[in-house]
Amino acid sequence: MDADVVVVGAGVAGLVAARRVQEAGRSVLVVEARHRVGGRTLNDEVGGVSVEIGGQWVGPGQDRINALVAELGLVTHPTYDEGATVFELGGARKRSKGDNPPLSPIALAELLRAQRQVDKWRDTIPLDAPWDAPDADRLDEQTFASWIRRTVRSHDARAFYEIVCQAVFATEPANLSLLHALFYLQSGQGLERLIGTSGGAQQDRVVGGTVLVSQQLAAGLGDAVRLGEPVRGIDHGADGVTVRTDAGEHRAHRAVVAIPPTLAGRIVFAPALPAERDLLTQRLPHGYVIKAMLSYDRPFWRDAGLSGQAASDEGPVAVTFDNSQPHDDTGILLGFFEGRHGVEWGRRSPTARRAAFVDCAVRYFGPEAAHPTDYVERDWAAEEWTRGCYGAHCPPGVWTQFGKALRLPVGPIHWAGTETATEWAGYLDGAVESGERAAREVLDALS
């Protein structure tokens, strides 16, 4: 045997699993297709400033990732959140303090009534078994969009839910089941926590970028991490696993596959996986996200009492944040082409996307936004070893028909990755949870 455990994928989930296995005194090998660690976390540069071009936020309630950040000796700083948010709904632009949109009394009443129903439902969702929720079949057979249409009539309230869906899932409400939306909201401790900045999931950033988490974990594993080794096949049986990569074969007692289900489904398993597991991976698409940033000589929007945050039902950059670094004069505006906007603008050139982002920034923050000093972007759907972000989502029928296969080991093969988490699924915290769970599974099996 080359190791007790082979981990496929050197993102946060895989590296956490490997660290915990190694800490328990077992040998481990991590194989990663990319020539870097970090998975869906990555740094780039705009305007001469290092920025996070992948996953970047941590927040309160995300106890696992916050504990890991501290364990690795890293620190966080708050996302800039002072001033008003710009909301653009139905062609009208308004400012509002906080995360709640400036809706008419009728639209706000509709939204609050709908949210009370959502909160009542989500409290009934077992995070480890959403298919066992009361009325699970009924909730899973309908789309999030069909529920919105039945429940909310005003344009602005509907638009708010659509913006939220794009921002959280990077897809449209018609593409996911109501049960999945409820699971995700419960997993992330509610809508306010999911979409909030101060007090929410976007509250903090890791100094130096969240990719440092993976880099520090990998450094601790030393030469047990092998880069540039795409896994093409996994042979498995009672005597263990053989993981076949472009560089050769690795034998181990157990394997942890810590990559998104969509990519895991491209590995050739021998013998073939159970039909339920294979059918699951065929049905878990990723969202579409192009993350982009504009740099300016200074964060001029702050002078006007604006936070740099905007939400629009027009887009194509429908959500923005102030991503300026502390103690640096450069103003950095972060924006996302998400969902249908990502699909449409992914067909166009970076030059066209930059121009579209600038146009949106001018609408939201005024004419000074017309003159950025630099632009950077990352189309995560175009990444060969990612194929979309932020994570996978379940269309109608997936949770109730195939969900039980998501975390269930297949012989000596175990599954990790943020999509398999129960708490904070789709987030860095969920990645940590999944890696720690998979490590416990393999250690129990080896004991």
Question: What's the gist of this structure?
Answer:
With 447 residues, the protein is an alpha/beta fold.
What does this structure look like?
The chain is an alpha/beta fold and about 450 residues long. It has 3 domains: about 5-40 and about 210-285 and about 405-445, FAD/NAD(P)-binding domain, CATH 3.50.50; about 45-60 and about 75-80 and about 200-205 and about 290-380, Polyamine Oxidase, Chain A, domain 2, CATH 3.90.660.10; about 105-190, Guanine Nucleotide Dissociation Inhibitor, domain 1 (Orthogonal Bundle). Helix content is about 35%, strand content about 25%. The protein has 15 helices and 20 strands. It has helices at about 10-25, 65-70, 105-120, 135-140, 145-150, 155-170, 180-185, 190-195, 210-220, 260-265, 275-280, 340-345, 350-365, 400, 430-445; strands at about 5-10, 30, 45, 50, 55-60, 75-80, 85-90, 90-95, 205, 225, 230-235, 240-245, 250-255, 270, 290-295, 305-310, 315-320, 330-340, 375-380, 415. The strands form 4 sheets. Strands 1, 2, 10, 11, 12, 13, 14 and 20 form an 8-stranded mixed beta sheet that branches. The chain has a 7-stranded mixed beta sheet with strand order 8-7-16-17-18-15-19, sandwiched between helices. Helix 2 (about 65-70) crosses helix 15 (about 430-445). The chain is globular and about 65 Å long.
